[in-house]
Amino acid sequence: MSTIVTAYLCLSVLLYFLLGGADFGAGIIEMFTSKKNVTRTRKTLYQAIGPIWEANHMWLIIAIVILFVGFPSIYSLLSIHLHIPLLVLLMGIIARGTAFVFRHYDAIRDGMQDVYNKVFVVSSVITPLFLGILAGSILAGHIDPDADNFFDAYIYPWFNLFSVSIGLFTVALCGFLAAVYLIGEADNEHDRKRFVTKAKISNLLAVGFGLLVFASAQIDKVPLTDWLFRNPVGLTAVMAASASLVVLWQWINRKRPAILRVLVAFQVSMILLAITYAHFPNVILLVDGQAISLTESEAPEKTMQSLGWALIIGSLFILPALYYLFYSFQKNEDYAH
Amino acid sequence: MEDILAARLQMALSLGFHIVFACIGMVMPFFMATSHLLWIKTGNDVYKNLTKAWSKGVAIFFATGAVSGTVLSFELGLLWPTFMKHAGPIFGMPFSLEGTAFFIEAIALGFFLYGWNIFDKWFHWFTGVVVGLSGLASGILVVSANAWMNSPAGFDYVNGAYINVDPIAAMFNDAWLSQSIHMTLAAFAATGFAVAGVHAAMIYQQKNVRFHMKAFKIAAVFAAVASLLQPLSGDHSAKDVAIRQPAKLAAMEAHFHTERGADLIVGGIPNAKEQTVDYAIKLPGMLSWLAFGDTEAEVKGLNDIPADFHPPVAVVHYAFQIMVGIGGLLALISLLFFVALRKSHWLTQKWFLMLFTLATPLGFIAVEAGWTVTEVGRQPWIIYGVMKTADAVTPMPGIAWSFYLFTAVYLSLSFVVVYLLHRQIKVVPVVYDKPTST
């Protein structure tokens, strides 16, 4: 049963990255859209994510609940040492979630819209930046459970080159995910081309920040190259991601948005696989080469049993409903064109 | 400010904020579905417009409740990591089910809000009902997790270790049912009175009377039924607390000395030093009767509980008085409402509408007070009788800054939500109840 729980944890992290990430990315794209086009972009964006956007963020809740029920010591450790970036993340989630809904449901359109828009785009950058920093922190090897001073215990675990580079990389990836997704949502040629350009730029940025991640891994002594190039699965994943990137650039101008979406989702999944597989089940890397293993942090047997069943039964309800939600609004939108 | 105090204040603020949005988010869908059903049945477009107007409110409250709920799932660890490390696997079952319920709610809300003119009308109506039902399930599950903190079950605590964990037994702890019923009724009463009050105020000002009267009646029926049932549930809860948490009951009643035939103390100022309650009204034997159904029963006082384990008496006592006082008042107003349904000219009379307008915030004040009773009344424990709150707090210093930040954010958010609702109501004559359609 603990395998099932672990699978659900990985699945919800992946889906949050893909769906929530595209959602954050939409805000990032909006930030880098000229005044002339921004109203139309905003409308496209709303049509694309309006009905599903609350659901996209539920994956985070599922992941966090699995963590605190099934792997409580990990949840507890991260909550202590990554308190500060988690706090910033929460502020981002509050600001973004409310601003997105408020700007749509404010009954009167006036100057307040500018406030909501600003809050929305800024928090759309800050939230994935800190999600990335948090993800980087669990791999950076700077968490010291026995630290006896404030900086070692609460600052350096996340405030290091590697974590910050992963944060920037994440922001670029989110923008890339969203731009590729929006290519298929554009209702005219002009907008479609704009999103293609955005996709290319954000992709280049992601590659750039990716190089920064490699450089900072060298400096911070994170064995990133070992994970990616000396492990057969890691290497395969990296090669698959690169190959699909080439295909994506080839296909980006053809009008087959569904294929582009699959490709970009595949790429992101491969990147996540590549950076976690080599050291799995060690998921939290600590100072001095120590690590915390996911399997050794499991809750008691009975808890894993009931958690596993709760997840299985839950997904029997959630997945069909979610599929129908995506399907209905996708179909209806095509119809509306 | 001490870290433990800051952490408690931040938790109180976050839960106090979330509880309002959670209540409205789980109850308003039922008002919406009622109005929607009336539209389908009667074809009267006022009901359709009302459903749409309310659904905007639901969207605003749901979004705010969803983010504040997400934040809470992190705050549990940020503020109380030691508690979560041990309690997570034991009381996590309702949270894992709640994840599903919450997810279903978000999906159903997507269908409902964006589904006008797309789906079959009954399917569309059904998605609205699912929003309400899954919200209700979420509420009950979260309360049952809280009940576990008051009434720990499903594990053995041996030499500091938590063994023989049984998450199902933990979920169905002794307090889950009484607390869930009490909270659910409170949510319906508080939201019902808040919504009815807003619409009553509009009728009072003679604005869009036909529209607001329909809204008022739907909300008030829910509010009145829940408010009349609540005293029964309160009695059930009190008897429960008397057995399980004598210290909490003693603090609620400022009951300092164990005695038979204990008096019920109404109001008054508890004097912890002298162990007396000044200026209180005392009803002889009534506390014994309320707690145990016998005017001669013995009720444990604070003197029989070690001082280290006393909750803050004054706060709990005042909060309890506020909750019960408001509960009683709302039950009376509810009776008047049922009379008014027979004497329909009351419904447009100024005194009647003013009464409801004034009652707008009362339900939520009672909810906050009741929640204070249950949480502060459990102190100094975070898991009653097992782990102290002070032992659960994060080692990270400077929590006060985090508390100030949350205070600023939640205050501004509350301000914006009120502002948005005000603007929703302002556009009723233009959008939902055009002069031509009246």
Q: Your description of this structure?
A:
The complex is a heterodimer of chains A (337) and B (438). With 337 residues, chain A is mainly alpha-helical. Chain A has one domain. In chain A, strands 1-2 form a two-stranded antiparallel ribbon. Chain B has 438 residues and is mainly alpha-helical. Chain B has one domain. Chain B is 71% helix and 6% strand. Chain B has 16 helices and ten strands. In chain B, the strands form five sheets. Chain B has a two-stranded antiparallel ribbon with strand order 1-2. A two-stranded antiparallel sheet of chain B has the order 3-8. In chain B, β9 and β10 form a beta hairpin. The longest helix of chain B is centred in the N-terminal third of the chain and has 40 residues. The radius of gyration of chain B is 23 Å and the shape is globular. In chain B, 55% of the residues are buried.
Radius of gyration of chain B: 23 Å
Number of domains of chain B: 1
Give the largest interface. A-B, 63 and 67 residues
For the biggest β-sheet of chain A, the strand order reads 1-2
Structural class of chain B: mainly alpha
On the 0-100 scale, what is the average pLDDT of chain B?
91
Multimeric organization: heterodimer
Strand order of the largest sheet of chain B: 1-2
Head-to-tail CA distance between termini of chain A = 46 Å
Order of helices and strands of chain A: HHHHHHHHHHHHHEEH
Task: Please supply descriptive tags for the structure shown above.
heterodimer, A: 337 residues, mainly alpha, 14 helices, 80% helix, globular, B: mainly alpha
